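Entry:
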Amino acid sequence: MIASSTLQCLFVALILFLHAVESNNPKSDQGSVGACSGVPGIPGTPGYNGLPGRDGLKGDDGMKGAKGDRGDKGATGKTGPKGSLGQRGSMGPIGIEGEKGIKGNLGERGEPGPRGENGTANSINWKQCVWSRYDTKDTGLIQECVFNKRNSSTALKVAYAATMRVYCSDSSSCCGRWYITFNGAECSGPVTIEGVVFMQYSKDNPHRHRQIEGFCENIPSGSIRVAVHVGNCQSYGSSDRGSGWNSVSRIMIEEYPQWQT
């Protein structure tokens, strides 16, 4: 049951509300109702959500997370345009020398060229080396003469003139061979340039002036060491030999055109 005091307050409030409605001023007598404490009314319908507020301040960076697994390889991209040529680098070190290749076959000999005109006397290339010395070597080098050959297609004429002797010290025969070399090798184009002195055993010991000479072809141009040597004859051993006794010895060298016949 509602208390009578409460009913009285509700009645008074209703009268005041109606009076306010008639006077079009619902708030005019709200203060008069303060003497009555009303019962809490029924909760009203919730209002609509308000508009979103402004973003707050940026927070501090969080801790670095653990490294994730490696992703799959992506597709190959398109080749980009060719870049400009860079600057040339410095020269690298010299590489190791390669092995010598196999010697090729000798090519066919070409046709003879036309014969040239005869040269003047001033164009002759020649030289002689002279010495006065008695060389008692039985074998070995006697004398060398350096010659500057102008052309690789020419031939050299070489002559050696000197006193040459051999002496047989026993009852057998003896022989000595004098020969010319070019840069340490005997001539092979076409044959060697040489001479021999042979003696049958006797008490004679002749010292005679002799000369050996010949042409040698296929010698390259440039500085050529022309030398005369003495040695053993084929099938004969060593014997007592002498070169240049009591006379002047000489090597004469001339450069000649190598004519084809």
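The longest strand covers residues 154-167.
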